[in-house]
Amino acid sequence: MAKLIIDELIDALRCLPGVGPKSAQRMVMHLLERDRNGARQLADKLVTTMDKIRHCAQCRNFTDLEICQMCSSPARDGQSLCVVENPADLIAIEQTGQFRGKYFVLMGTLSPIDGIGPDEIGIDILAARCVDEVKEVILAIGSSVEGEATAHYIAEMIKPRGIEVSRIAQGIPMGGELEYIDAGTLSHALTGRKVI
Amino acid sequence: MSGRSKVWVMMISNHRAELSPAYILHSRKYRDTSQIVELLTLKEGRVAAVMRGARGKKKKHQTAQPFCPILVAYFGRSDLKTIANWEVSYINLLQGENALIGLYANELLVRLLGPFEVVERLFVAYQYLLNALVKDDETSQALRYFELILLEDLGYGITFDVEVPTGEPVRPDACYRYVAAEGFYPVDSQRYPNGGFRGDHLVDIANKDLSREEVVLTAKQVTRVALASLLGDKPLKSREVFKKYRLDMSKSLLSDEKDKS
What we know:
The complex is a heterodimer. Chain A is α/β, with parallel strands linked by helices. Chain A contains eight helices and six strands, in the order αααββαβαβαβαβα. Chain A has helices spanning 5-13, 21-34, 36-52, 69-72, 87-96, 123-129, 145-158, 183-191; strands at 54-55, 62-63, 77-84, 101-105, 136-140, 164-167. In chain A, β5, α7 (145-158) and β6 (164-167) form a beta-alpha-beta unit. Chain B is α+β, with helices and mostly antiparallel strands. Chain B has two domains: 22-92, CATH 2.40.50.140; 95-261, Up-down Bundle (de novo design (two linked rop proteins)), CATH 1.20.1440.120. Chain B is built from seven helices and eight strands. Chain B has helices at 3-16, 97-112, 120-135, 139-153, 199-206, 213-231, 237-260, and strands spanning 20-30, 34-41, 45-51, 69-75, 80-88, 175-179, 183-187, 197-198. A five-stranded mixed barrel of chain B has the order 1-2-3-5-4. A three-stranded antiparallel beta sheet of chain B has the order 7-6-8. Chain B starts with a helix and ends with a helix. The chains are: A alpha/beta, B alpha+beta.
């Protein structure tokens, strides 16, 4: 017997993270009973987004343009480049308001076991980016083993070109008490200490 | 068994589960706040286990990191265990290229070692490798030693001091070529490309004496062939990463020299 259209939709919704069969069913029922217009709009937006959004040719962030707004903005300082793991990290750094340069989004970190190598994180695009006006590269990469390997790779690749490379500091969070901080963070904080 | 008594049994086994030494080889996200970790344990070899509450803002434990020795207790009847309790013994920070080497060792273990194969010697060799990587001292020796023990513990140990097909001991002054899973055939060094492997190197490797640099290189070439035959047609990603790393580094250096001239 062919599957009912409703069941197909329930199955399809399960591609969302954290959505199981029960919550998928609840969503479908809600849309059918109460918000058909909203559902139509959602379907329409999903199709447009999936068709139009691609990676920016310069920074690899998601955009519907060839080169994203941030990369083409004259207000941003093209001399400093901040390398982040994913678009969510970019937003987090933007919210600090501390950085006025441009970005590069790796879309992951080097992780050989997961099959992620230099090509998958766009190393060549980054290398091509670091020739013209870029004077400083800030590596805002998470503090994991994979992050460490990625940061090292990029730093070694860029340093000989006379570009200043730094990695964001790791250590004590705001309002943190030393007693409760894990040994790994604390040892990073000690090795990366700052003269005041 | 009713739900309540099942929980009770789990609690009992929780108490009984003893902390034993292990390393995290790899972790991947599981649900919103958990991780599935691949462990290399002293007692049971490779074990996959769910680590609950390991991620997210309200995480209960410090973040699980590869390369750090941990003590772990897990329970469960299926192949996927559940971690009851764990703590980090001390922190190993692998930096730069050594982190890449560490990831290579982890990929080898995840790819080649079957679950629940007891590999105590390999565990020690892995520990030895990590210590060398942390100190950044004699890393290539430690890595070769680790590869040799890995092959031995997988049941594909290489007999370095016997010629095939004769079974005679390897002669230090002769040259040899290596065929995976078979062994060392004597060759005419004049005719063979690169002269083949030297007998005295093979004798040193058989005695686990890796003090000479050229012996380490021979061990590297032999283990590479042996490991490739076990890995089948899907090559190691970390080796590809290394290759590209070297290429990118040399490119950068070249462009640097051009700039200067």
